[in-house]
Amino acid sequence: MQDIAEQLQAWHASGRSFAVATVVGVSGSAPRDPGAALAVDAAGEAVGSVSGGCVEGAVYELCQEAVTTGRPVLERFGYSDEDAFAVGLTCGGVLDVFVQPITPGADPAMDAGIAYIASGTPVALARVIEGPAALVGATVAVTADSHHGRLSPAPTTTGALERAAVAEARAMLDAGRTGKVVLGLDGRPCDEEELGTVTFFVESYVPAPRMLVFGAIDFAAAVVRIGKFLGYHVTVCDARPVFATARRFPDADEVVVDWPHRYLDSQLDRIDGRTVLCVLTHDAKFDIPLLERALRLPVGFVGAMGSRRTHRDRNARLREVGLTNAEIGRLRSPIGLDLGARTPEETAVSVAAEIVAHRRGGSCLPLSAGDGPIHHDLARAQEDKARSHAA
Hints:
Blueprint: H1 5-13, E1 18-27, E2 37-41, E3 46-48, H2 56-69, E4 73-77, E5 94-102, H3 108-119, E6 123-130, E7 139-142, E8 147-148, H4 156-175, E9 179-184, E10 197-205, E11 210-214, H5 218-229, E12 233-238, E13 254-257, H6 260-266, E14 276-279, H7 284-294, E15 301-304, H8 308-320, H9 325-328, E16 331-332, H10 344-360, H11 376-390
Parallel strand pairs: 11-12, 11-14, 12-13, 14-15, 15-16
Antiparallel strand pairs: 1-2, 1-5, 2-3, 4-5, 6-7, 6-10, 7-8, 9-10
Helix pairs in contact: 1-3, 5-10, 6-7
């Protein structure tokens, strides 16, 4: 819902009822990841998307029905080869969509959750999507130090379930993860196949991941633009005030004049495993102190621009300051995929492509070169799940 939070907040503030359809499960070549959402208000206005078009019409009708009846529903959409016009995913995947009606003021957890999302405060929404009928649709909004809403004022088993759901949601919020959690009524972790369980869909809403671009050069402006396009909060940092200006980088969220390593030291509480560092200075006096620190931090990606010769010289200097081969091995250098890029814009595309491939586990080969899964991260998650069940 983060992508459509502004519209949801507007509907909510005006007292308008609406329904939110959320992708809660995918398999095969499903077009959207879990968490993708479509919302429809009482007047029929729609925002967002769950499938990129395949089943949007059917989900829209489910949302309208949910607004009218006030009842949540979990619906599965899959491929149908019997009727070319049947409601299904032509790509051959399976999409599970949970539709929940929301009436402002009726559910403290949803009220708090929407307010947190709109304000940018990290929050996880744990919603019951399968289980006892009395619990389906129940929501708990969890922050780092509090939670809102209750699953039920009733039995002790539900109290244990609520405590476990809050703990699981808080752990997922801390990791910035979204996905399913299956618990028994007594709060113990369970498999989906077990009877008498409750399935939660936990959505973590955290600030946008950060992209730190070091080096206020012409290539940096293009990298900033594509970083924003990918959804990053982008900061440009350079020690030279004549180059590091907001006028030269109007698309950046921040432009900082500081030595790169010193700025990185000041950001340790604002970076995490989703953070991307693009070092474009290719100047040893800036690069080495910065990379000495960056390659020892738990960030998602560290790449550095430069020629092959610069790369070899930089690696030698990093060894001299004490970095191990394993630490140096984390450096993506020269940064970017081999697209034959020449212009700043083409170079930015190659940099972005490597970042996406690194994050999602892509092979970097043309899709036409193979016949394996298109979505590598989903395939990897399914393999991990199969291994855990086998164990």
